[in-house]
Amino acid sequence: MSLSDIDDVIRLQKINAALVDRVEQAMDQQRNAFSLFQTAISLEGQVRRRTDELTSTLRTLEETNIELARQKDISEGANRSKTQFLAAASHDILQPLNAAQLTISSLYDLQVSEQARLMVNQVERSLDTMNELLRTLLDISKLDAGVTTPRFASVPIPPILASLLSDLRPIAEKKGLRLRVAVTNDCVYTDRLMLRRALQNLITNAIRYTDRGGVLIGTRRRGDDISIEVIDTGAGIHEDQLEMIFEEFHRGPLPQGDAEHGTGLGLGLAIVRRLVTALNHKVSVRSVPGKGSVFRIRAKRTDAPPSLVSTVPVSVPSPAANANLAGKKILVIENDPAVLEAMEGLLAKWGCHYRIARSTPQALEALEGMTWLPDLIIADHHLDFGHLGTDTLERLFDVMPLRVPTILATADSSQTLVEHAKHLGVEHLPKPVKPAQLRALATHLINSNK
User: Fold this and answer.
1) Does the global pTM surpass 0.90?
2) Which of 44, 211, 225, 389 is deepest in the core (most CB within 10 A)?
3) Could you tell me which residues are beta bridge partners of residue 379?
C-alpha cells in the first residue's frame, strides 16, 4: 500500500468520525427536542389540571359567598325580628302594669280607713316589685339577643356617680348608712347608660346587704385602666358563693331586721355581668364574711372629650308647693283602653280639662282648627293603625302656633327613641309611670313654659 493510499484511509476515517459525530449530535438534539416536547406536554397537562382545580375552587368560593350572603340576610332578618319582638313585648307587658299603677293612686284616695290604705300601699309595693322584675328580665333578654348594643364614647365618671347618689342617698340614709364618694376626675371608654345601670345595681345591692356602717364608691388608676369600686361594710360573701352570686335569681341572706327593704330579685348582679361583658369591661369581687365586700368594674381610661357636656340625666322634679293642675288643658294621645281609663280618672281627680286621641288624625281633630290648644301633651309611642307617637308629635308641632310642653310616656326605652325624644325637645318618661311622678313632671313643664 502506497503512502497516498494510507493518507486516503486516514482522511476517510476522519470523515467517517466527523459524520458519526454529527449524526450523534443530531440524535442528541432530537432526543433533547423530544424530551422538551414531552416536558411541554406534561406541563400543559399540569397547567390544565391546575386551571380546572382553580376554576372549581373559584366556583366553590362563589357558591360559599352566595350562601354566606344568604345566611347574613337571614341573620339580619332574625335580629330585626328579635328587636321588633322585644319592643312589642316591652310595650305589651308593661302597658297593663302602667294602667294598674295609675289606677292604684285613685284607689288610695277612695279609701276611708287606715287599714284599707295600708292594703293599697301593699299592692303598690307589689306592683313596684313586678315592674322591677319585668324590666330586668326584658333587659337581660335584650342583652342576650344582641338587641342592646353599646354606644361607646369618652364618658366622665363623676357626673354618673353624682346622679346615682342623688337617687340612692335617701335609701341609704333611711337605713342609717353613710354613702361616700372618693373618685378621680377621669373618663372611661364606655356606654354611659349601660355603665350607669351596672353601677346602680352594684350600689343598690351594697345598700341592701349592709346593716351598719356604709358604702364607699371610689376609683383607682390601674395603668391605662380605671377601677371603679363599690365597697361596703355588709355581711360579706363566702368564697364558695363568689361565682354563684352572678347567676340569675341567686339571693343571699339579708341582714337581720332588714325585711322592710325587700329581698331583691336575684337579678341585679346577673345583669351587671351581662352589661360589663357587652362593654368589654371586667367585673370582680373580693369579700370577707362578716366584714364586707368590694366589687370592681375595670374599664379603659380615656382623655376627656374636647367639649365636655354634662351627661347627668335630668331627674323628675319633686312636687312643687303649687303643684296644682286644676283647669289645665291636657291632650292625651294613647290607645290602650285600660291606660286611658286610668288616665281619665287621674286627670279628672286633678281637675284637668282633657281630650283623648288614639291616632294622628284624632290628635289633629282634638285641636279643632287651633281653637283648643293644650297646656300639655302626654303621648304614648305606639298608637292605633301603626302610628308612632313621635310622628304624631311632629305633625302637631308643625301646625300649632305655639310650642306645647310634651311628655312621651312609653314602655319603649331604647336609646334610639330616647335620642329622638331629645331631638324633638320632649321629655321621655318610661312606663310604668307613677301618678306622683307624672304630676310633678307635668306641673314643672307647664310652669316652666309660662
Assistant:
1) no
2) 389
3) 333, 408
